[in-house]
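B., you asked whether I could sanity-check this one before it goes into the benchmark set. Here's the sequence:
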Amino acid sequence: MNIVFEVEDQRVTAILDDTPVARAFAEMLPLDLELSDFGGGVEKIADLPASLPTNDAPSGMKPVAGDITYYSPWGNLAIFRKGFSHANGLIKLGRFTSDFGPIDRSGPVSVRIQHEE
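And here's what the prediction gave me:
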């Protein structure tokens, strides 16, 4: 499933995995979120309006730059700007398919996430 992150006047495309947790995230769209820096700039995070189902999801993963993930212990979206070590409770939702430079910057970033038309 293709989605778009709108940042100011720029569009960043992404694809969601075909998993129950990613489909549940897609059902929340459109979402307007404020992404904040976390982990010394390794990731951008934002709270989601509801938790996502994690039944049958892997217990964790090792993210790489451009991964769009769900951190189940906190119930937040986490976008990785850099690779990181394996983290329990981290579930991959998808990945960017275009340059995510408009998101990959320091400081808060306002985004609208929606289905690609």
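One thing to flag: The radius of gyration is 13 Å. Otherwise nothing jumped out at me.
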